[in-house]
Automatic annotation (TrEMBL), chain A:
GO terms for biological process: D-methionine transmembrane transport. Keywords: Cell membrane, Membrane, Transmembrane, Transmembrane helix, Transport. It is found in: Cell membrane. Belongs to the binding-protein-dependent transport system permease family. CysTW subfamily. One of its GO terms (cellular component) is plasma membrane. NCBIfam families: PRK10782.1. This is D-methionine transport system permease protein. PANTHER family: ABC TRANSPORTER PERMEASE (PTHR30450), D-METHIONINE TRANSPORT SYSTEM PERMEASE PROTEIN METI-RELATED (PTHR30450:SF1). Its main location: membrane. InterPro entries: AA_ABC_Transporter_Permease, MetI-like, MetI-like_sf. It is a multi-pass membrane protein. The keyword Cell membrane applies.
TrEMBL record, chain B:
It is a peripheral membrane protein. It comes from Franzmannia pantelleriensis. This is Cell division ATP-binding protein FtsE. Belongs to the ABC transporter superfamily. It is found in: Cell inner membrane. CDD domains: ABC_MetN_methionine_transporter.
C-alpha cells in the first residue's frame, strides 16, 4: 500500500474522530439537560409541567423518528446557515448532532427513571429545592446510566458518521465508499471497516470502565 | 410540638375521589414519642406525609414547633423542613454517596460551609455507632446500619421533630430492637419529639408514650400506651391487642363455645388486669369469696414499658348466679372482663 493511501486512511480516521467527538460533545451538552427536562416536567414530578412535557416529548419523538439519511438531506439549508457549507466534516457535524440530541435525551430520561422515587421524597423532606434535587440527587444517582447512554450514543454516531461520508461528509465512511466500493479496492474497504470496529470497541471499553468507576452498588 | 387540626386528604376528584384521610385532629406534645398504628391502607402513610407537606392536605392546618406549615411554599417551606427530620422504611440513602456524604447532604442543602459540615457529621456518626463506616458506601452496609445512617442524616440539620415512616418494617426483629433503642435514646438525650407510623404493635409497646389507632382514614382511638394495651376502647383496638398478645382460647374450646348461657353451662372469660391487680391474689379470693371453681386455660404476663399487664382465659365453674356474681366481683376490682361464651359441662 502506498504512503499516499496510508495518509488518506490516517486523515479519514482523524476526520471520523473529529466528527464523532464534536457531535458527541454538543449532543451531550444539549441532550442531558433535555433528558432532565423530560423527566422533571412529568406530571407529579418535582417541576411538573404537563403541557411543556408533552411538547418536549413530541419534539423529541420527531427527532428520533426521522431516518438519519433523510434528516441529513432535509436540514441542508439549516446546515448551510450554521457552518456555511453542506459538504465536508463540519457540515456533517450538524445533522449528526441534531440526530443525537433526542437520542441522548431519551436515554438520560430512561436512566433517571431508574432512580427510586423514595430518594426524591427524602431530598424533599430535607428541604431540597428542585435544582438541588437535580444536581445533588438525580444526576449523581443516574451517572452510571447516563454514561452508559452516552457510550451508546458515541457508538451510534460512529456508524452515522460513516453514513454522512456517503454524501460528502469525509471520514472513514467516505473513504470506504470512494476507494473500497467505487474503485473496488477490497484492502481499503477491509482497513476502514477494521478501524471502525477497533474504534467502537475502544469507546465501549472506555464507557464500561467509567461506569464501573461510578458504580457503588 | 406537632398539631394537626381538621386535616383531610382526598386524592382525585368527582366520582374517582378517594378520601385517604377524613378530617382528623392530632396533637403530639413536645418530647413525646407518638405512634400511629393501623392496617395497611388505613391512611398512616398519608398522615405522616402531610406533617412535612410531602402530601399537601386537602383541608386543615398543620403546625410544627409553633409554625403553621400549610400556608408555606417554596423557600419558606424548605426552611421549615430543615427543622423536621424524616426516616423511611427503605432508608432512601444515596447509593452514589459515602456514609459521610449522605449525612452531609442536608447540611449541603442548607449551605453550611465544608469545614463546619466536617465538624458536625463526625459526632452524628458517633451517636449512631458508625464512625468506622464513614467512607463506606450504603451497598456495603446491613439494613440496620443503613437505617442508622438515615437517622444520622435526619438529625444533621438539628430538627425539633423526627418523622419515622415504617422505619423498622424492613428489618429483622433483633435489628428492629436496636433501632428502637436508638430512637428512644435520641428522644431522651436530645429531647426530640418523634412521630412514627407502624403496623407493628411491638414498636408501640417498646418505645411509644402515646398511641393513635387509625382506620379507614380516621383516628378511631387515642390513648397512653399503657391504657391502650390494658383497656382498648374500640373493637379494632382489641383485635390489635389480641393479635399482638396471641392469647386466644384453644381451638377445641372455641368450637364448643356457645354465645347464650344454657342450663348447665359455664362462662369462659378473658381477663385483663394491670397495675395493683397483677400482684393481688385475685383468683384464689374469687374462688373463696364467690364459692366457685376457676379453671385457668391460658395466662400470660406482659410488661408494657413501666406497666405490667396480666391476661388470662379462664372458665368459671359454678351455679349461674354465683358465676355472675364472680364477674361483678372481678369488674369491681378493676379487671377488664370479656365473656367469650359459654361452654357446656358434663355433670
Amino acid at each position: 500500500m502506498s504512503s499516499a493511501m496510508l495518509d488518506l486512511i490516517l486523515k479519514a480516521t482523524l476526520d471520523t474522530l473529529y466528527m464523532v467527538g464534536v457531535s458527541s460533545l454538543i449532543s451531550a451538552l444539549l441532550g442531558v439537560p433535555l433528558g432532565v427536562m423530560l423527566y422533571v416536567t412529568r406530571p407529579r414530578q418535582i417541576l411538573a409541567q404537563p403541557a411543556l412535557n408533552r411538547v418536549l416529548g413530541v419534539v423529541t419523538n420527531i427527532g428520533r423518528s426521522v431516518p438519519f439519511i433523510i434528516l441529513m438531506v432535509a436540514i441542508i439549508p439549516f446546515t448551510r446557515m450554521i457552518v456555511g457549507t453542506s459538504i465536508g466534516t463540519n457540515a456533517a457535524i450538524v445533522p449528526l448532532t441534531i440526530a443525537a440530541i433526542p437520542f441522548v435525551a431519551r436515554l438520560v430520561e430512561g436512566a433517571l427513571n431508574e432512580i427510586s422515587p423514595g430518594l426524591i421524597e427524602a431530598a424533599q423532606s430535607m428541604g431540597a429545592t428542585p435544582l438541588q434535587i437535580i444536581t445533588k440527587v438525580l444526576l449523581p444517582e443516574a451517572l452510571g446510566g447516563i454514561i452508559t447512554g452516552l457510550t451508546i450514543t458515541v457508538v451510534t454516531l460512529v456508524s452515522y458518521s460513516a453514513m454522512a461520508g456517503a454524501v460528502g461528509g469525509g471520514g472513514l465512511g467516505d473513504l470506504g465508499i470512494r476507494y473500497g466500493y467505487n474503485r473496488f479496492d477490497p484492502t481499503v474497504m477491509l482497513i476502514t471497516v477494521a478501524i471502525l470496529v477497533v474504534m467502537v470497541q475502544g469507546f465501549q471499553s472506555l464507557g464500561d470502565h467509567l461506569v464501573r468507576r461510578t458504580d457503588h452498588k | 410540638m406537632i398539631t394537626l387540626s381538621n386535616v383531610s386528604k382526598t386524592y382525585g376528584q368527582g366520582h374517582a375521589a378517594v378520601e385517604a384521610l377524613k378530617p382528623l385532629d392530632l396533637h403530639v406534645p413536645e418530647g413525646t414519642i407518638y405512634g400511629v398504628i393501623g392496617l395497611s391502607g388505613a391512611g398512616k402513610s398519608t398522615l405522616i406525609r402531610c406533617v412535612n407537606l410531602l402530601e399537601r392536605p386537602t383541608s386543615g392546618s398543620i403546625s410544627v414547633d409553633g409554625q403553621e406549615l400549610t400556608t408555606l411554599s417554596g423557600d419558606a417551606l424548605n426552611q421549615a423542613r430543615h427543622r423536621i427530620g424524616m426516616i423511611f422504611q427503605h432508608f432512601n440513602l444515596l447509593a452514589s454517596r459515602t456514609v459521610f456524604a449522605n449525612v452531609s447532604l442536608p447540611l449541603e442543602l442548607m449551605g453550611v460551609p465544608r469545614a463546619e459540615i466536617r465538624q458536625r457529621v463526625a459526632p452524628l456518626l458517633e451517636l449512631v455507632g458508625l464512625s468506622d463506616k464513614a467512607n463506606q458506601y450504603p451497598a456495603q452496609l446491613s439494613g440496620g446500619q443503613k437505617q442508622r445512617v438515615a437517622i444520622a442524616r435526619a438529625l444533621a440539620s438539628k430538627p425539633k421533630v423526627l418523622l419515622c415512616d415504617e422505619a423498622t418494617s424492613a428489618l429483622d426483629p433483633q435489628t428492629t430492637g436496636s433501632i428502637l433503642a436508638l430512637l428512644q435514646e435520641i428522644n431522651r438525650s436530645l429531647g426530640l419529639t418523634i412521630l412514627l407510623i407502624t403496623h407493628e404493635m411491638e414498636v408501640v409497646k417498646r418505645i411509644c408514650h402515646r398511641v393513635g389507632l387509625i382506620s379507614a382514614g380516621s383516628l378511631v382511638e387515642e390513648a397512653e400506651v399503657g391504657d391502650f394495651f390494658t383497656a382498648p376502647r374500640t373493637q379494632l383496638g382489641r383485635e390489635f391487642i389480641t393479635e399482638f398478645l396471641k392469647l386466644e382460647p384453644p381451638r377445641a374450646l372455641v368450637e364448643r363455645l356457645d354465645a347464650d348461657p344454657g342450663d348447665h353451662s359455664h362462662p369462659v372469660v378473658r381477663l385483663a388486669f394491670s397495675g395493683d391487680a397483677v400482684s393481688t391474689p385475685l383468683i384464689s379470693r374469687l374462688a373463696r369469696d364467690c364459692q366457685i371453681d376457676v379453671s385457668i386455660l391460658q395466662a400470660k404476663v406482659e410488661s408494657i414499658q413501666d406497666r405490667t399487664l396480666g391476661l388470662m382465659i379462664a372458665e368459671l365453674i359454678g351455679p349461674s348466679d354465683k358465676t355472675r356474681e364472680a364477674i361483678d366481683y372481678l369488674e369491681t376490682h378493676d379487671l377488664h372482663v370479656e365473656v367469650l361464651g359459654h361452654v357446656q359441662r358434663d355433670a
